[in-house]
Amino acid sequence: MVHALTQIHRAIRPGGIVADLRPDRFAVPRQPRPQLPRICWASDGRERLQGTLDKAPENLQRHRAATRAVKRVVQRGLYRLEGTATFQFRYHFQTLGVFEWRLRTVWKDSFLRPSLHRRLQALQQRSRTGHIVVIEPVRLNILRKR
What we know:
The chain has 146 residues and is of the alpha+beta class. The protein has helices spanning 2-11, 57-75, 96-105, 114-126; strands at 17-23, 38-43, 46-52, 54-55, 79-93, 110-111, 131-145. 16% of the residues are buried.
């Protein structure tokens, strides 16, 4: 990511802005345990069935590396950190099939534990009005070229 931020620095004019938007697995530096996306079953305005969407360990290392990369380019003086915001982004899936498709095609390094998958199946069969919600911590860094 340092390479990408360096290339972007070359391409934008002085004072230009870069928005770094990505999942925020490690909100606290040197945090031993990552913040994994939570999975809920939403029905009738309530969220039930708390679980997590697990990630492959090598993916978690990429999250740490991205955080270090932003810090490195700021320390080198390429950018000034204008601001940072963290928030919870919610993905909504009407069916388990659509959610599984997302896991296979986009979130390839993520997986559901079999017990959580069975619980989601059971809830979907019982409720026609509910849906799956994935709540993911996200960080937005605004960087200004110096």
